[in-house]
From TrEMBL, chains A, B:
Region (Disordered), start-end ranges: 1-30
Aminopeptidase P N-terminal domain boundaries: 30-174
Primary enzyme class: hydrolase
One example of a Gene Ontology biological process annotation: proteolysis
Name of the protein this chain belongs to: Xaa-Pro dipeptidase
Species this protein is from: Rhododendron griersonianum
SUPFAM superfamilies (alphabetical): Creatinase/aminopeptidase, Creatinase/prolidase N-terminal domain
Catalytic activity, as annotated: Xaa-L-Pro dipeptide + H2O = an L-alpha-amino acid + L-proline
GO molecular function: manganese ion binding; metalloaminopeptidase activity; proline dipeptidase activity
Record-linked Pfam families: AMP_N, Peptidase_M24
Keyword terms: Dipeptidase, Hydrolase, Manganese, Metal-binding, Metalloprotease, Protease
Coiled-coil regions listed: none
Subunit structure: Homodimer.
PANTHER family, per database record: PEPTIDASE D, PTHR48480
């Protein structure tokens, strides 16, 4: 043993036990069965689609997983996160995989990269194929350089094997998903003289059928998917409360981000977030996607600021997306109350109205209307709310959509079915979906009310809208920023479940910020959430 | 004000003040002057080079900054970090910029992207060009769509303006840096009818001169660069100590990562790390680049494990790279001591020998020799160390190079000058530089000793090396993992300065893990760091 010179430390720290964990949660087991269920769901939908057009149940769903990326010309490796469709079907955390599902037999096949001997020294044990077969619960595992041969050998139809490739529009990014890369496969074939190069040309490919079907599978969540989204919500809710409790005037915005990231990773095992944290205070609250590299959460919190914190952790690919707004000094002013209660009221009204069959566009309008009514009651707006709705005044205060699907992507795909048109009206055009709600969907409810010069100034100058605006009052809100309240809800047969568990009423927030535990022990009904406070 | 029902909380938490900050550090001001100095240094080197070949001091250094990336087809934006050469010259944190330096006048010119009106609502205030001029201390700022016109107008030579573009090999990644993208510029020209499309074809380009010159500028650090690297070292050293102190048997490896990330961001404002944290315990310590997505720091710490934590924060692009190794239960066993002291002795021997003119290959061999001698003293090896050196036995226990340049990249470029050959011998071939040390270099000193089955098994079977190995002793180290000790040193006129300030002696580590403050108050010399412990 090593010598330890000097007397034993008499510091009070020395013998004190480690502090108790600051969380009641711990990361759940990763349920790989979930992906088997996802594959089965896709297989059933695809077979049904093929039957409808009297086509044989033959061919392979064929996807390429993500590749690890380095930063520009350097060897700096970015932390890899799997491509979302591949994650949905296979749950594979490693880069460089391909995957197939045999439409005829239902067999699932993973193709793993063949790693060099060096890998064992630098990156870790080279796992046998059986390891991946067991971990990912697939029927077979081969190496990626065996893809053409395996698919040819296993194809049960006549002629060239048919590959269903992923190609379709993401309606949030306006980008197309990239079908599995055949150039790579061709180069593999060239390096395998025992396989004929013509092999690859002997595949038939279909680029239209798979994308809408798998996307629709992703829209409706299974119980196992819901459980992961619930865990991501639980740990993120807890982290939001932790941040709220520790926020102090004089801190930097990024310190709130750091506390959130630490809590969700330390106690939830969440290495990734669903998106870059938005930690906006003061005027920054009016920047909807604040927090990126050009606006990096670096302001100092000032007394009297509102904070708008939009942060959500991801666990085994499934995410959460939660926004809390609160005064950084722990006490709402009457103006803050006015705006906050307008938004929380809209949030609650929407959640009370959500059920299968309801149109998301109607929910958006419901939120807008509640906010406009509240601002009118608060003396900020004049006139008839119905007239304001006609002039789309709501979009001045809430220029974003009410919410979006949530799952493996924060903006989960499927918001617009093929051929569906985006609404054209101001505000509604920003909606990430215009669909009717269905049981099994998970969607964010995130009304907001912001004071954005770039929108308020034109509205004050337009004859259509200026008549509604009480400019003398509005001027007081210059620099206010904004309030957003965002929860993740799961649509059930009769309504919805709010998966997000954070203080929402102003008095709950004030109690938690004053040090009370959450959930509050003596929970009391809100006596009155009116703007008079 | 809102109502707050119920009596005031009587929880002991309620009125307790926030805990005191856990750091003596705070983020320093960002010194933009640093980049002005970098530009001047490049300009001087480039002009000198041109003079030597009797070429005129004309044309523009022309670089493209990094672009923000989204994940596959989604709208998930990855947190942007500037391309390193662009960061070196301009220090710009926003994506989408180009930059030029006029070789004739020394003027520096930034080109900012012209942002859409939507940007103000979603991403933040659209800054005027004067904002960037002031922030980045450049001579002029224009929009990117003005690049061709500006460069043509300002060119002082005759004929077509010459652009010095960045094109050269990164000897760590074996990738070439990407010269500024002319396709983008061409498409800009097409969209600007007032500029002739031929404009772009009227540039001359040079792809060979710039890269080696700017790379060599980066190799030798200025005082302002050293100060940033020192801060990254200070906050990371403090975070390592924090992690060491809080490590407990039963934790997960990623919890150590989480604590490190939190400390460096919360108290150091470091949003980025220099590289993905390597938090290896037990056998994982023998995986040199553990911690990536396929080996994601997810093991549970067991009593008797060594931890090998390789983690470094980055501040305003400049990084740190620090490894600490310690027993997770806070007490070294005699075997752990043997291996640890072999490595710390090698580390100290190298640092004592470093000075300008010393060959890095010799430093590597010095470390190897110390480790082999220690393993021999500990009864793990037999025979003459000089014979072991001839057979390259050191590479079995330390298969990586002794260290690498450190700066804006963790593996900072310039390790091999053009035409320099990598050593071919086992172990030495992994060196990221074979250069002689010079004043102003910053390099990591990171000897290690690992028990890697993939290397030990062949060594035990080879007649050249098996004679040195005491297999009966070595078998005890199966599953031991490894020890690495890594500090960042700055080469001075007469020696070097160790910028890393963490406990290194076994007794220091044990004292800190037992709760003593760091630096130790009653610092004592190590009575004897011999392997007998």
């Amino acid at each position: 043993m090593t010598s330890r010179p000097g007397e034993p430390s008499s510091s009070p720290m020395a013998s004190s036990p480690p502090p108790p964990p600051s969380s009641s949660l711990s990361p759940p087991q990763i349920p790989m069965k979930l992906h088997e269920i996802n594959r089965l769901k896709l297989l059933n939908s695809l077979r049904e689609h093929l039957s409808l057009s009297s086509r044989p149940h033959q061919g392979f769903v064929f996807l390429q997983g993500g590749e690890e990326q380095t930063r520009h010309c350097t060897d700096h490796t970015e932390l890899f996160r799997q491509e979302s469709y591949f994650a949905y079907l296979f749950g594979v955390r490693e880069p460089g995989f391909y995957g197939a599902i045999d439409v005829a037999t239902g067999d699932s096949i993973l193709f793993a990269p063949r790693l060099s001997e060096d890998y064992a020294v630098w990156l870790g044990e080279i796992k046998p194929l059986s390891f991946f077969k067991e971990r990912y619960m697939v029927t077979f595992v081969f190496y990626t350089d065996e893809i053409p041969k395996v698919l040819h050998d296993r194809f049960q139809g006549s002629g060239r094997p048919l590959l269903f490739l992923l190609h379709g529009l993401n309606t949030d990014s306006n980008k197309f998903s990239k079908p599995a890369d055949f150039e790579v496969l061709t180069s593999i074939l060239f390096s395998c003289p025992e396989l004929s190069v013509e092999g690859i040309e002997k595949f038939k490919t279909d680029m239209s059928i798979l994308h809408p079907i798998i996307t629709e599978c992703r829209v409706l969540k299974s119980d196992m998917e819901l459980a992961l989204i619930q865990f991501a919500n639980d740990i993120s809710s807890e982290a939001h409360v932790e941040v709220m409790r520790k926020t102090r005037v004089g801190m930097k915005e990024y310190q709130l981000e750091s506390m959130f990231l630490h809590h969700t990773y330390m106690y939830g095992g969440c290495r990734h977030c669903s998106y870059t944290c938005i930690c906006a205070t003061g005027d920054h609250g009016s920047v909807l996607h604040y927090g990126h590299a050009a606006a990096p959460n670096d302001r100092t919190l000032e007394d009297g600021d509102m904070a708008l914190l939009d942060m959500g952790a991801e666990y085994h690919f499934y995410g959460s997306d939660i926004t809390c707004s609160f005064p950084v000094n722990g006490k709402f002013t009457s103006d803050q109350c006015l705006v906050y209660n307008a938004v929380v009221g809209a949030h609650d009204a929407v959640i009370s109205s959500i059920r299968p069959g309801v149109s998301w566009v109607d929910m958006h309008k419901l939120a807008e209307k509640f906010i406009l009514e509240s601002l009118k009651k608060g003396g900020i707006l004049f006139g008839e709310v119905d007239d304001m709705m006609v002039e789309r005044l709501g979009a001045v205060f809430m220029p974003h959509g009410l919410g979006h699907f949530l799952g493996i992507d924060t903006h989960d795909p499927g918001g617009y079915l093929k051929g569906a048109k985006r609404p054209l009206e101001s505000g509604l055009s920003a909606l990430r979906t215009s669909r009717e709600l269905q049981e099994g969907m998970v969607i964010t409810v995130e009304p907001g009310c912001y004071f954005i010069d770039a929108l308020l100034n034109p509205a004050m100058q337009s004859s259509n809208t200026s008549k509604f605006l009480n400019c003398e009052e509005i001027v007081r809100f210059k620099g206010f920023g904004g309030v957003r309240i965002e929860s993740d809800v799961h649509i059930t047969a009769n309504g919805c479940v709010n998966m997000t568990k954070v203080p929402r009423e102003t008095w709950e927030i004030e109690a938690v910020m004053a040090g009370q535990s959450w959930p509050l022990k003596n929970e009391q009904p809100c006596s009155e959430n009116g703007v008079e406070g």
